[in-house]
Known about the structure:
heterodimer; A: 388 residues; Rossmann fold; CATH 2.40.50.140; 9 helices; 33% strand; B: MetI-like fold; two-stranded antiparallel sheet; globular
Amino acid sequence: MPPPLKSASVGAVRRSFSPWADPTATPLIRVENVTKRFGDAVAVDDLSVDIFEGEFFCLLGPSGCGKTTLMRMIAGFEEPSAGHLMLAGKSLAGVPPYRRPVNMMFQSYALFPHMNVEKNIAFGLKQDGLPKGEIAARVGEMLRLVQLEKLAKRSPSQLSGGQRQRVALARALAKRPKVLLLDEPLGALDKKLREETQFELMDIQHELGMTFIVVTHDQEEAMTMADRIAVMDHGRIVQVATPGEIYEQPKTRFIAEFVGDVNIIEGHVLGQESGLWRVGSNAAEAPLTIDDPDEVLNENQAVAIAVRPEKMVIQRERPETDAANVLFGEVWDIGYLGDWTVYRVKLDSGAIIRVTRANRSRFVENPIEWDERVHVSFAPDAAVILAE
Amino acid sequence: MIARPFPKRLASALVPAVPYLWLILLFLVPFLIVLKISLSDPAVAQPPYKPVFDWNDVLGFLSQLDLENFETLVGDDLYLRATLSSVRIAAISTALLLLVGFPIAYAMARAPARHRPLLVALVILPFWTSFLIRIYAWVAILKPEGFLTQALMALGIISEPLSILNTETAVYIGIVYAYLPFMVLPLYATLEKMDDTLIEAALDLGCPPWRAFWAITVPLAMPGVVAGSLLCFIPAVGEFVIPDLLGGSETLMIGRQLWSEFFSNRDWPLASAVAILLLIILVVPIVIYRDVEARRLETRP
């Protein structure tokens, strides 16, 4: 039975979905202090994370951060050197990949070249020894889901990259696994197709109510699709949070810089005044005020202030409000991107920061030009403090 | 279009001509000569057949050609039995070669990448020694007082000397030994190219390893299986040295028959007819294979 078409938008359902915040909820996948060593190299280092049923979970990180190794351990292709993996309360230790209720969509798609589309999708169902009629019905349903009904008899070599990606997805979904692992699922697609497919993947995941774990190095992909993102670096998870939290409340400088663009202003803590931190920096004349109450800091502690380029304002005149933090500099470079204009401003301290401005009208009178003296300001709540 | 200078055009016309010239001079012409001899009659002369081609009397020459030798081949069941026996021995040898060669090629393809060139070199290494010497070495191993018997008796596994030499078993051992590289190398080439993630994908979809081997590895290795089998089967059918040195007097093979017609009976025309027969036997599987392959490619939807 194909699931009924969604009644509410995915987003509406998604906003209310947060099992990770519920301490009584039991995770579908529990990764407990898992370490994986290859010889001397540590690919995954004492990593723990819980993934919940129905979640769209993204493992995000630069290449070599261990995200693929973690995924391969969940699939069963690698055994952890230490630690435990649990699926629905049962240990996965020693369970071979062909006995795990987990399916994977490979980065290379790994379609069987000697089988046509239909047979590729049916392969997993045949292994389960399902009756022929049921296999045919399920294959038909999958073909409809990925809109490939007309290409059922084609061989993989006769498909485009996007079509192959759909076959790989259909094949991995056909067995209705508890968890679907996707290794860089959109990596081989061009940009336009990638964007469309992101939303399709979200729809499919929502329709089938399956748990998706996606490995990606593309932060935009992760931000668009995921309920939660785990940012990985050097075999560890640095932060697990919703895309919004990852972007607006990054825990470390690595995350702030890896996810999106960010300006880092170095400074030291002067003190706290009515809940706001005051930070001295040689990038600005006056102390900066930052609204980041959760941070626990000591006086004189060295910190980095992270401000996203779109949260800064660039203008010729000094801003009126006293609350704003103001930096001085001159325009070093201007990049016109159509929707945005990027200004690179060389501060008087020598540091170069990025400021973006949305191009809201088609023509700007007297625009800011190269080498002009400008004021760059940002509100206290536009910045976060990252302890060094 | 830019007209290319004449020497360049000449060169680009000549380059493809070289292989054709080669094939015409060294395959087509000798074949026609053999065909002609097979249609002649034996004679006590130099060369030992007649008629001899004569420019002045082409028609007279042609009128003397006949199919008598082929009638002999069909009439005497010795040749039919030799042919069938050759095909049988070649087929069984090819099957044995597949059985022995596939695991070797598979292990080579699975070996760490840095060891593979060495393994390939080891497979080719026997070619550095003369083929004849290697077959004679098997005589020394297999003869009743040979190494094998001695070793097995020393180990207490057998008490009577083995009588393997001069049997069909010895022929199989010899062919499998001598032709193994021709089976292993094409198999290795296809297996080595195979994407390991296909096996992982099969495992992931619930297929246990041994079943994945039959469902994925074997079908994808088919081009190598077919190439290796043909490379072994075709020369094995016409094999002469191995059955002559290792086989017994009752080991009937068409290549041996050809040799005795040619050298013992000095009946060149009949020997040539046997050669043509051998060629026909071997052309058939090649044509069938090509036909099947072409149809397989065509019917791909």
